[in-house]
Amino acid sequence: MELEAFKPRAISLYEDFVGFPSIHEELRDIVNYLRHLVRLTREGKDDYRRMIVQAEPGALFLGRTGAGKTHALHCVVNEAAKAGYHPIDGSVMLGKTEVDPKDVREFFDSCRSEADDNPLLIVYDDARQLLGSSGRGYYSFEYGNSGRETRPMLGEFRRQIDGLQFFGHPAYVIITSATSLRHIDRQIARRFSRHVSFPRPRDESRRALFHYYLNRFGHDPDDVDIVTLSFLMDGVVAGRVEEIVSKASYKGDMEGGLTNKLLVKEISRFLQGPPVDTHLTEEMKILTGLHEFGGHTLPAYAVGLEPILVTIEPSADGSYGKSFHRHSKNLPPSSAKYHFADVVTRMGSTAVYLELEQSIEEGRMNDLTSATRSALDLYAVKNPMVNLTVGEGTYLSEGLFSEENREEIEGEIEKIKGAALEVAKDIVRNYRNEILAFTRDHLVKNEIMVRSEIIDALKEMSVEQGQYYEKMCDSLNEIGYPV
Fold first, then answer.
1. Is the pLDDT of residue 192 over 80?
2. Which is it for strands 194-198 and 58-63: parallel, antiparallel or unpaired?
3. What is the end-to-end Cα distance of the chain in Å, rounded?
């Protein structure tokens, strides 16, 4: 069988890898291991090398599609090539619908011949059939059997992996797959004793990814709000960050430059789908802006939360606008202050309607429902034995509380929401002119504004973050909740 070289992208493990530090360390250790095998061969310590290879002939890179496995693989291949390894593309062996044991033997016989002269790095990018089941996975859980016809191939593959220790030069195998470890044939998993798992990136990693890919596409990361972009991509795999920056860059090149708005649009398109075919009139834009900024973003900022995004663009789910905020140092998540601040922010849409008399409605239903959820979370802070939900399977429908309990809890919720509404109304009254100016001069004009743009505009209008923080805390104390 004629072997084909695996051709990696021109990226370096030490300069281009972006991800978890623990994974970076694991990849560096693989490269050091490969260099050590070459050194042992050069020093004539073949018996010692064989014992080491028997213990670790290869590695599995596991994680969801787009988690960064292939990026890491290319980084390792490039570093291995610098140490003299010839990268071999294992997909040559997998070119058929059904892989015959003979194909496996022919492929590894060719690799053995190649290894007479050079160390080899055998690479399989997304080769699930090589990790298939023989009935049970690595943790001995039953799962879908991959069929009797695949078992001879898997058996032959295991035998060939065991034979790598007898190659003339070191040979190491790396397989990437979106398969979970618990769904891998346990004999295969045992032989590939090094398992590198690629989870979804955390906030710090997402920021690093945006910084890296913006640089790669020729943009200055300081020109966009990476904090906002990272927040919006929570729970998304690493590969999507590259895709989003790439698409936004293409549009930025056509429109005169990359902007926060272009990036947010691409993120929204990925998360929600294409926007609805709806055109907002100027009047509707103003009403939506008053609701989203005056009703949510400004109250959140005034009580000390951190604004993330406000938009009046129609979304794929049919809504006309959205706003996001998050906790701050003074309002840590899961605290009573944070839950009450969230209720204030949700009730802000009702406050705008009552105080300005020119918003869409007296609190959208989803705003009122969200306020109720946050009020229940606040109630649970004072009553830690209570775990409540809103919607299907409520505390009442599940029979967890009596009618008397229900009336008490609902009365407490209304008290919390009422107190929050008074704080929100006070904020709207105090900042009436700023709400109108921000909506007409900024939001209607820009349609999408991110964290840095929101804060800069508010500072220009001398609106101070957390100005109503103390008042909110006093109100929380008055209704009997810990601050």
1. yes
2. parallel
3. 72
Q: Is 188 inside any structural domain?
A: yes
Residues 335 and 375 in one domain: yes
Question: Helix 336-356 crosses helix 403-430 at what angle (to 10 degrees)?
Answer: 60
Between 477 and 403, the more confident residue is: 477
Are residues 32 and 163 both part of a single domain? Answer: yes
Domain boundaries, position 237:
203-272
Q: How many domains does the chain have?
A: 3
User: Is residue 141 very low, low, confident or very high in pLDDT (cuts 50, 70, 90)?
Assistant: very low
Tokens of 14: 């030490």
Q: How far apart are CA 302 and CA 426, in angstroms?
A: 11
Supply the pTM of this predicted model: 0.80
How is residue 179 written in tokens? 């398969």
One domain for residues 127 and 207? no
Mean pLDDT computed over 4-32: 94
For residue 361, name the pLDDT band (cuts at 50, 70, 90). Answer: low
Side chain identity at residue 225, one-letter code: D
User: Measured between alpha carbons, how far is 475 from 138 in angstroms, rounded to an integer?
Assistant: 55
Same-domain check for residues 350 and 431: yes
**Which one, of 205, 255, 258, 259, lies nearest residue 234 by Cα?**
205
Mean pLDDT confidence for 452-472: 95
Q: What is the CATH number of the domain that holds 456?
A: 1.20.58.760
Query: What is the dihedral sign for C-alpha 414, 415, 419, 420?
Result: negative
Indicate the helix (H) or strand (E) that contains 322.
strand 322-326
- Better-predicted residue by pLDDT, 150 or 109: 109
List the structure tokens of 350. Answer: 């009702």
